[in-house]
Design a protein that fits this description.
The chain is mainly alpha-helical. Helices cover 71% and strands 0% of the residues. The chain is flat, with a radius of gyration of 22 Å.
């Protein structure tokens, strides 16, 4: 599972708001340009973005391996028909391109996760979205980012404990039921303890956040993000796009 790692790459030196802007612009443009040339162009841009984040693309793909069966199944299912000829390869082209775009966006998001701490992400959101909505979003994202890895470790511990007790010989449905029930019980217990801890520590809606500031290194990335938004808007309004 991907997590923040300190470093000195280009992406580490960027303001988190710049990285969020680039993520949104990249996703918007990638989902507008639906041709193979568009997918190739954004694939190259995604690899360059990961290079700027000093992140191995294969590592990101492996971290999101649980999504791969769905991305691979979509074009295969689209090619199946309920009658003769039963299998139409041409019907799988668009779903395959869509799966490729989803993968490219996920990979670029992996670069953001690896180069941006949870606290910086919260600060970026709270300083972009004003008032209580921004505080609520920032707090929610921070809690989810810190809580999900704990739940994942709980599920892995339950699975290992069941395997140690020779539970792998039980039917698959029983094993899934045991994992789901035990996982939910642990999640509820952890949520209760988290609520008590937050009350005991007098949770602040407006804590002291790390300082943020734009620098010269942010300028080209912001400019690229604006160009991506412009390219997406041009495609939406029907202007001849550069990737068609």
């Amino acid at each position: 599972m991907l997590h923040y790692q300190p470093g000195d790459s280009l992406a580490h030196r960027l303001d988190p708001r710049t990285k969020l802007l680039f993520e949104i612009a990249f996703a918007a443009a990638a989902f507008v340009y639906t041709t193979p040339r568009g997918l190739l162009a954004f694939g190259v841009l995604g690899v360059l973005a990961l290079a700027g984040a000093d992140t191995n693309p294969l590592r990101v793909v492996w971290a999101y391996r649980f999504v791969m069966p769905f991305l691979l199944a979509a074009p295969l299912i689209a090619m199946l028909t309920l009658g003769s000829p039963w299998f139409v390869p041409s019907e799988g082209v668009d779903p395959a391109l869509a799966s490729g775009r989803n993968l490219v966006v996920l990979v670029v998001c992996g670069g953001y996760v690896r180069t941006t701490s949870v606290t910086d992400s919260r600060a970026a959101i709270q300083r972009t979205v004003p008032g209580r909505p921004g505080q609520f979003l920032g707090l929610g994202i921070e809690l989810v980012a810190r809580f999900l890895p704990v739940l994942r470790r709980d599920l892995l511990a339950i699975r290992d404990a069941e395997a140690a007790r020779l539970g792998t010989g039980r039917p698959l449905r029983e094993r899934i039921g045991t994992l789901a029930t035990s996982g939910l019980n642990r999640a509820f217990r952890r949520a209760d303890r988290l609520s008590v801890a937050m009350q005991a520590r007098c949770l602040s809606w407006n804590p002291t956040l790390p300082p943020l500031g734009f620098g010269w290194v942010d300028v080209p990335v912001v400019g690229l993000s604006v160009l991506l938004f412009g390219a997406a808007a041009a495609q939406v309004v029907g202007i001849s796009p550069p990737f068609q």
